[in-house]
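batch_manifest entry 22 of 60
target: Protein kinase domain-containing protein
source organism: Phrynosoma platyrhinos
requested by: lab member K.T.
priority: normal
notes from requester: please return tokens only, no post-processing; we will run our own comparison against the previous entry in this batch. if the run fails, retry once and flag.
--- input ---
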Amino acid sequence: MPFGCIGLRDEKNYNSLSDITDKYEIGQLLRAVSHPNILQLIDTFETRKEFYIIQELATGGDVFDWILDQGYYTEKDASNVIRQVLEALAYLHNLHIVHRNLKLENLMYYNQNNRSKVVLRDFYLSRFENGAITEPCGTPEYLAPEVVARQRYGRPVDCWAVGVIMFILLSGNPPFYDDTDDENSDSHNRRIFRKILAGDYDFDSPYWDEISPAAKKLVSRLMEVDQDQRITAQEALGHIWISGNIASEKNLKEGVCAQIEKNFAKAKWRKAIRVTTFMQRLRATDVSGRLPVTPRSSMSVAHEVTIETPRPAERLQTPCPLEEEVQEQQQKSKSEGAAEKTE
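--- output ---
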């Protein structure tokens, strides 16, 4: 069986037993997992400076490239991808595991001979949901509102991310974006976070004109601002767009591929230099009024991961600086979501 090796560099001081056990959590988590749509753990070993994780090697390429290579791409193809992601996610959630970094770049085809099998990768930020999770982490454009708002969160954040993935697969566009040139500026990310908190996205024409109402409905259920009202992975598997035979077979390739090439050719979406770029912008503002950047995890091109020590005491001292601006709209979204769920 072919395999890949990931080295976790150890660059933190250990001041408590929990600090030491955190080092091995990824290996412990992956040992508990066995699912056809998740890269399997082969072994782990440790040197004086590194902790290595050996997993199955997926050689089929990522979903981005698969879409661009197809001569014909339809809603049904997107539905097949999302179904497999939801099956893996429902399995993980049943084990009380939160992935926390689901994104289109982390979906791969297992091999070139079986292009229909999609596998999840990148469990560097995953953890067991055995208590309240408050640590803000993930990829900014895929963050759920409760993470941006620095509230306690859990498995529903993964379902939100699936909604973002589905939105991109069907339109080629991200649901939350900002057209400013400087994508690394504080103001750019603040605008993105405001839109996420408010659930401010649209099924824009012409990109969504040919997409079925059932697909749009599932996206809305997955990207429900209120995590208590958000559809679960298991519930989503029963949605008619996934379990029924109603996904359109109209060719979407021209429109979707053009938008993917336009929106995702940029380095921050595609390259594997850093897993998370702005996650610590969710802390309280500093004296200058800017949101500071302290990445928790970074991944080099050689897939070596550095884990930095989080500082829990600093995390929730003050509310998210954007939260009050959208609190009223969140309450409105909650009421609307409850009404839609009964339909």
